[in-house]
């Protein structure tokens, strides 16, 4: 139980930190947009980033249970595989969410 909680919190914390760094770069990318246009894109990214972080953390916990029960791996080994793997997957998905957020801001710019 403690391993699952530590894995969840570690994966969630790192994914949120990555999301915040990407938010900074998204702010730089949305430099020429008005505030009302950029708000929709940033809101989309914030919601998607939180959902990605939460889902990757939940799947990391499920994956360590899978590794321990089906593959007969140790607890520490399972956590050492799950956390970096789902942080990497979360980073890729957060990058896609950032691009979607910029796309939403561009759509709002063209339809305003």
Question: TL;DR?
Answer:
By secondary structure, this protein is mostly helical. It has helices at 2-29, 35-69, 75-111.
SS summary, helix count: 3
| H/E topology pattern | HHH
N- to C-terminal separation? 51 Å
Tally of extended strands?
Answer: 0
Query: How many structural domains in the coordinates?
Result: 1
Report the uncertain regions.
none
Main beta sheet: none
Mean pLDDT reading: 92
Q: Residue share in helices?
A: over 70%
Beta-strand percent range? under 5%
What class, by secondary structure content? mainly alpha
Description:
It is elongated and about 55 Å long. The protein starts with a helix and ends with a helix. The protein has one domain (2-111). The chain has three helices and no strands. With 112 residues, it is an all-alpha fold. Helices cover 89% and strands 0% of the residues. The model has no long low-confidence stretch (mean pLDDT 92).
Would you spell out the secondary-structure blueprint of this structure?
Blueprint lengths: L1 H28 L5 H35 L5 H37 L1
Helix pairs in contact: 1-2, 1-3, 2-3
Q: Descriptors for this entry?
A:
112 residues, mainly alpha, 3 helices, 89% helix
């Amino acid at each position: 139980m403690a391993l699952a909680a530590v894995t969840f919190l570690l994966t969630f914390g790192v994914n949120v930190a990555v999301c915040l760094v990407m938010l900074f770069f998204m702010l730089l990318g949305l430099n020429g947009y008005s505030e009302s246009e950029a708000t929709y894109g940033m809101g989309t990214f914030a919601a998607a980033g939180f959902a990605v972080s939460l889902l990757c953390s939940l799947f990391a916990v499920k994956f360590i249970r899978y590794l321990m029960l089906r593959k007969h791996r140790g607890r520490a080994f399972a956590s050492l595989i799950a956390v970096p793997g789902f942080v990497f997957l979360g980073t890729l998905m957060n990058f896609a969410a950032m691009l979607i957020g910029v796309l939403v801001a561009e759509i709002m710019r063209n339809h305003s």
